[in-house]
Amino acid sequence: MKNILIINGPNLNLLGTRETEIYGKMSLQDIENECIEIFKKEGKKLIFFQSNSESEIIDKIHSSKNFDGLIINAGAFTHTSIAIHDALKSVSIPKIEVHISNIYKREEFRKNSFISPVVNGIIAGFGTKVYQIAIKALKFV
To answer: What angle (nearest 5°) sits at the alpha carbon of residue 73, between those of residues 118 and 129?
Structure first.
């Protein structure tokens, strides 16, 4: 897995300032920088993308066919978007769903994911390290 697309959904641009007791103090840029630094020696090209727009996320998924793997933290769209589900279903590259918090220890509505049925695996509850774990896990898919 050399070229990996990492898609982040709504409100993840607020990481580091929003609900730090749940999501921690690292910004999305901090997470990106850390991942790039760790995996550059392995020759991995990581492309991070964040949008609060469902349509932009869908377009990015559609354009992911040239990547070796996809990691997605769809944020709140995880629990609401059949359109993102369908977009993910349309690409045949390995896909991993990530969540910084353990969605199964939170509100009831967060326990339902429209993303999970169309990805190869799920990593949740390990804080911002879920991105690093997912990058490593793609080699097992």
So the answer is: 120
